[in-house]
Amino acid sequence: DDDDDIPQLSSHTLAALQEFYLEQQEREGMKTSQGFNQYSIGSIEEDWQLSQFWYSDETASCLAKEAVLAAGKGGRIACVSAPSVYQKLKEQDGEDFSVYILEYDRRFSVYGEEFIFYDYNHPLDLPENLLPHSFDIVIADPPYLSEECLQKTAETIKYLTKGKILLCTGAVMEEQAAKHLGVKMCKFIPKHSRNLANEFRCYVNYASGLD
């Protein structure tokens, strides 16, 4: 029989696959149902191929709150490769601040004019309307734990910020973070919605509420 060589999925694997597709359909159903919040964390799912790992809701809330306080009344906030902080900030409708998201993943273009396509390989390839030193605080989470990625992202951060920087990256990047951005590690330990293998930390160059 020619069918003998065709690999068959085990009943366990098949059940797991069906469960996955069912969950996916339910998520899509939630997105189209009334009351779906396009700014909620998870509304755009992580793409691990782009090294995306969203913060936990508590961490995103804490970082968003810190950004608002640091920016001050009427402040401008830039989120560089930190979409879950951007989403949490946008949940705070009516607050007196403005925020932009700089992100490589074009799925975030659903956020309209606040989305700016960003490739850390071209750190200063930015729109003309993004004037130098025009943001009260820049929150950045470079996608890769490499000095090259941090160094190039640092160029973008230093171009955008008036002075305040909130960097989220691995604990192993402490020396490079100090070298390229003059930031120091905070006591606050950020968490992700999925556990990461690498210890993650926050770094700032100002007196923050994260200590």
UniProtKB/TrEMBL annotation:
One of its GO terms (cellular component) is cytoplasm. Keywords: Cytoplasm, Methyltransferase, Transferase. The keyword Transferase applies. It is found in: Cytoplasm. It holds the Pfam family N6-adenineMlase. GO terms for biological process: methylation. GO terms for molecular function: nucleic acid binding; protein-lysine N-methyltransferase activity. SUPFAM superfamilies: S-adenosyl-L-methionine-dependent methyltransferases (SSF53335). It catalyses: L-lysyl-[protein] + 3 S-adenosyl-L-methionine = N(6),N(6),N(6)-trimethyl-L-lysyl-[protein] + 3 S-adenosyl-L-homocysteine + 3 H(+). InterPro entries: DNA_methylase_N6_adenine_CS, Efm5/EEF1AKMT1, Mlase_EEF1AKMT1/ZCCHC4, SAM-dependent_MTases_sf. It comes from the Eukaryota. HAMAP family: Methyltr_EFM5. This is EFMT1 methyltransferase. It comes from Toxostoma redivivum (California thrasher). The lineage of its organism: Eukaryota, Metazoa, Chordata, Craniata, Vertebrata. The gene is Eef1akmt1.
